[in-house]
Amino acid sequence: MKAARYYDNHDIRIEDIPEPTPANGEVLIKVAWCGICGTDLHEYLDGPIFCPTHNTPHPISGETAPVTLGHEFSGVIEALGEGITDLEVGDHVVVEPYIINEDVNVGPDSNDYHLSDNMNFIGLAGRGGGLSEKVAVKRRWVHKISKNIPLDQAAVIEPLTVGYHAVDRAGELPEGSIALVGGAGPIGLLTGAVLRAKGITVVISELSELRRKKALEAGSADYAFSPAETNVVEEVRKLSKDGRGADVAFECTSVQVVLDTLIDAVRPTGKIVIVSIWGKPATIDMHKIVMKEIDLRGTIAYVNNHPDTIKLVESGKLDLAPFITGKIQLEDLIDKGFDTLINHNETAVKILVTTDPQNLN
Ligand SMILES: [Zn+2]
Questions:
Q1: What is the pLDDT, as a whole number, of residue 19?
Q2: Locate the Enoyl reductase (ER) domain: which residues (predicted)?
């Protein structure tokens, strides 16, 4: 079967590799669509980061490069390994793409398996990936979805769940709360969509006019301001009930000035959730954190959030279609996929990849 294999930075090859067979407790999935993630771009430009190198196997998967890429995917069950009785061939599914040590509690009561030692992802550190025709995945990480969700939109559930967990990290947010999202990249947009689906008023601060337009059109924001043209802190205060600022803010850019704006824009006792990956230390005005009793929190990936995120999509309260800005075949992964996202990232949100030419008709 065809698969996109990561060898090293600037070295991803479309190759023919053997089809996987499902071991006991594994589900064989025929991939329908797989999204390209910012993480994939980082691996391509600056990696290996999550991917193993040629000579250092990942401690859990045991695999070295090359590894198959792709962790945002949807598909249809083609076969079931022994011992699986609660799924059927033909079911539509998405994958929570974790590689986690066997001795970690990954049950429904866990809220920290995603923070366990050497945690990594299917499609980055081994165990196959969505940028291929088929993948075998342990039952635990397979989530059945309604056939009412189109399979292309279902491929966006993985990054949407990142937004869902970020919102969850903010704790109780009564309906009518005001949230400020810094940055309208894919994760900022999806976080905004989750917030609005929960009845929260969303303000997005974003420099790019095209991205602001997308945020409003796609249902990710009620208001979108340019921090170059508008005093975002003042606007957020005006929109808040008592003029004191946003109840919560989400940092989705890893840009210092955005973090500074969020610190100024949240109300006393407000919360700031850091969603982006920071490659360098930030400067934080601790006096402001202290004097407003701000809660500054991190969030990474997701933990037991897939079932609720899938329910939210099934409820129809948010529409994932506007976030799909391109569909390509696997052969065009680098030329039409990576290149577009790296060089034309103002208009591109999610580009989906398929190995099945029929999907593109
Ligand atoms: Zn991702």
A1: 98
A2: 7-330
Q: What percent of the chain has pLDDT over 90?
A: 96
d(CA 123, ligand 1 centre) in Å: 10
| All domains of the chain in start order, with CATH | 2-156+320-360 (3.90.180.10), 162-298 (3.40.50.720)
Per-residue pLDDT, 181 = 98
Of 245, 254, 253, 250, the residue nearest 288 (C-alpha): 245
In the reported structure, the alpha carbon of residue 210 is separated from the centroid of ligand 1 by a whole-number distance in angstroms of 22
Cβ(157)–Cβ(306) below 8 Å: yes
Q: What's the gap in Å between 241 CA and the centre of ligand 1?
A: 36
Distance of CA 71 from the midpoint of ligand 1 (Å): 6
Distance 72 CA to ligand 1 centre (A): 6
Q: How far is the CA of 321 from the centre of ligand 1 (A)?
A: 18
What residues have their beta carbon closer than 5 A to ion ligand 1?
A: 37, 39
Q: Rg (Cα) of the chain, in Å, rounded?
A: 20
Give tens-digit pLDDT for 157-207.
999 999 999 999 999 998 889 999 999 999 999 999 999 999 999 999 999
Work out the pLDDT band at 279, boundaries 50, 70, 90.
Answer: confident
Residue 13 token pair: 């090859």
Cα of 214 vs centre of ligand 1, distance in Å, is 20
Residue 227 CA to its chain's centroid (Å): 25
pLDDT digits (tens, 9 = 90+) for 246-260: 999 999 999 999 999
Average pLDDT across the chain, whole number: 97
| Burial of 51: CB neighbours in 10 Å, binned 0-12, 13-18, 19+ | buried
Residue 293 Cα, ligand 1 centroid: separation in angstroms? 32
Task: Please name which of 1, 63, 61 lies closest in space to residue 31, comparing C-alpha atoms.
Answer: 1
State the distance from the centre of ligand 1 to the C-alpha of 38, rounded, in angstroms. Answer: 6
Give yes or no for a contact between 7 and 65, defined as CB atoms under 8 angstroms apart. yes
- In this model, does residue 357 exceed pLDDT 90? no
C-alpha 327 – ligand 1 centre gap (Å): 17
**Whole-angstrom distance, CA of residue 360 vs CA of residue 356:** 8
pLDDT tens sequence across 303-329: 999 999 999 999 999 999 999 999 999
